[in-house]
Amino acid sequence: MLGIYPFAAIVGQERMKRALLLNAVNPRIGGVLVRGERGTAKSTAARALAALLPDVEVVADCRFGCDPRQPTQWCTECHENASANGPLPGIMRPTSFIDLPVSATEDRVVGTLDIEQAIQHGERHFEPGVLAAANRGLLYIDEVNLLDDHVVDLLLDSAAMGINVVEREGISFSHPARFILVGTMNPEEGDLRPQLLDRFALAVDIRGLGHSADRVAIMERILEFESDATAFGEKWLPEVHAISIEIMRAREIVDAVTYSRPDLETIATLTTSLRVDGHRADLVILRAARAHAALRARTAISDRDILLAAQLALPHRIKKDPFDSTGLEFEELENRLEQARSDVQGAASAERPPEERETSKPKKKRGRKHAAARARRT
After folding, report:
1. Are 124 and 200 found together in one domain?
2. 71 lies in a domain?
3. How many whole angstroms separate alpha carbon 292 and alpha carbon 254?
4. 267, burial (CB in 10 Å: exposed 0-12, middle 13-18, buried 19+)
5. Residue 362 located in a structural domain
6. Can you tell me the distance from the alpha carbon of 136 to that of 70, in angstroms, rounded to the nearest whole number?
7. Residue 249: what pLDDT?
């Protein structure tokens, strides 16, 4: 950790850091794509995130890092070992960081089955690929827009399903492939096809910071890091440790974070008003909102959680005019969310019987004394 630039020391880029942290809390969100010009800390942030992630418990001697507490998600080898030898022991290991090269092929990503070994000796031999190494870790793809589209499809499928299945000539092998997917790219070098862009759950567009004070802070911190990386890491260690603890606690409660039917209706009304195709965005907003609530140690989502999640899940899915270069502004999204919530509440009120609507009306003020008392209490 001390040899990597600390996550907490990154200046600005709050939206990018929020998207990364939400995926760290719940990798099932489906990854994040960071688009930005050169020198905006995209790669630095991805490596820094992996460094602050807590250690994970894995099955001892498992090539795929299976979770000993989740037998339903074990690889083929762990299932066979458990059947033959009983309970599998677990060990702790650091969260892995896997950097996928742009030249990666399909076999390099998913792994390979040795058909010749199977035919001649009747033995199944599987050579793990990148997905096996990335399980329960962070898979980083720099210049994802330059990667072969078919390979990107495979990665996104695995990130969504959490499993990698390889089949050759009637022989199959499966292993878990649950990882935090982080892709970065420079739009000046070409964009992703819309179909692939939509598969990334969250997307963030970043630029260099515009305030001179921020740019000075960046220079000072980088020079200090280059001068003595160990001392710089120790200086930021308390803040990095605090973020790591927040992630661990959020992971423990994220599945218990509650939401209401009106919350779902608000999300659906919001995406409908923006003419978002498909239903992936609705699910992403809900998962990201629950992760944000868990990160803030809350057990129920709020409109603020939905808003911040929508800010990350919708801009790259909004239909734009050919000459529209601007994304969805935060104020516009906030107004649409308020309108969506108002529409949901109005519809719910209209469905209630007349006598209930009468009793639900706000009571009139009861005089200055009562108003003053309420003001003091608030």
Report:
1. yes
2. no
3. 9
4. buried
5. no
6. 12
7. 93
Residue span of the structural domain in which 24 resides? 7-55+94-254
CA neighbor of 236 nearest in space, from 54, 1, 14, 6? 6
Same domain for 304 and 207? Answer: no
Q: Identify whether residues 165 and 276 lie together within a single domain.
A: no
Instruction: Single out the residue in 227, 254, 281 at which a domain terminates.
Output: 254
Whether the CB-CB separation of 44 and 76 falls below 8 Å is answered with: no
Distance CA 78, CA 67 (A): 10
Positive/negative CA dihedral, 29, 49, 109, 200: positive
Whole-number pLDDT of residue 169: 67
Flag residues of the chain having pLDDT under 50: 1, 321-326, 359-378
The CATH number linked to 282 is 1.10.8.80
Question: Which pLDDT does position 264 carry in this prediction?
Answer: 92
With respect to residue 357, please indicate whether it lies within any of the assigned structural domains. no
85-143 pLDDT per residue, tens: 888 888 898 888 888 888 888 888 888 876 666 556 556 677 888 888 888 888 898 88
> How far apart, in whole angstroms, are the C-alpha atoms of residue 226 and residue 232?
9
| Whole-number Cα distances in Å, 63 to 93, 101, 295 | 13, 21, 31
Same domain (yes/no): 191, 154: yes
| Active site residues per annotation | 280
Q: What is the Cα–Cα distance from 304 to 294, expressed in whole angstroms?
A: 13
CA distance 289 to 274: 18
Q: Are strands 112-113 and 126-127 parallel, antiparallel or unpaired?
A: antiparallel
Residue 229 class from Cβ within 10 Å (0-12 exposed, 13-18 middle, 19+ buried)? middle
Residue 221 included in any domain: yes
CB–CB of 7/240 below 8 Å? Answer: yes
CB 20 within 8 A of CB 46: yes
The domain tally of the chain equals: 2
CA distance 87 to 71: 10
The pTM score is 0.79
Q: Which long-range contacts (CB under 8 A, 24 or more apart) does 157-165 make?
A: 158/110, 158/131, 159/27, 159/30, 159/31, 160/30, 160/199, 162/28, 162/73, 163/73, 164/110, 164/111, 164/129, 164/131, 164/132
Q: In what order do the strands lie in the sheet with 97-100?
A: 97-100, 138-142, 180-185, 32-36, 202-206
